[in-house]
Amino acid sequence: SSIVTLGTARSLLVDSSVYDSRITETTKDHHALLNTTCEDGEDMLPKVETRVVLVGEAGRNGALVKALQDINSPFLMTENVQEFGDGDSTEFETVFVLTDFNSPDYSYLYKRDNRIIGPPVVLHCAAKDEPLHFSCRPLYCTTMLSLSLCFTGFRNKEVMKTLVNLVHHMGGTIRKDFSSKVTHLIANSTNGEKYRVAACMGTPILSSSWIQKAWERRDDVEFHAN
Asked: What pTM, to 2 d.p., does this model score?
């Protein structure tokens, strides 16, 4: 889907060196194109109005409604995402707020490349008096914002897919190769070059349960994994 400039909203856009949440292999040329699209899109594409849509339970959350009002973000409420989520709009950039990232509504919107955020993102921005954060991927909370993770020792692709999605939902990024830019190494074994280098560099080395425990606290706006 096309990426548009969202007024003054801060963009949390994909790093060209990270995994896609679907863990697909991409070429260097595709990485370069993706990086250019995300980072330089502001100069390339026209600005459109942002429309926030509170879906189902999100629309009945008084604190969430007040938070949007506090940051002067116009919003609508709906019980039927198909009213808005089917097809691209040239008039609006629609952002959906969902309380459940495992719901049929989420699946419907995600498959159609819609922008999706969770209530904690709205509450976080309101608390800091910031415009809404937006991402190329669904963003439930900012628990791992600014963190860059690398994995080692994992062989099960389904387990990896789940962990990568959780990190992305919390605002973190994933790097395939270990470097000084990695803030945490998630290890499933103590073998391998990544583990040895991380230990030498003093990079925090954690198990996958750290990601799971952070996700359990996803609705705690004041919590940040570190």
From this structure: 0.78
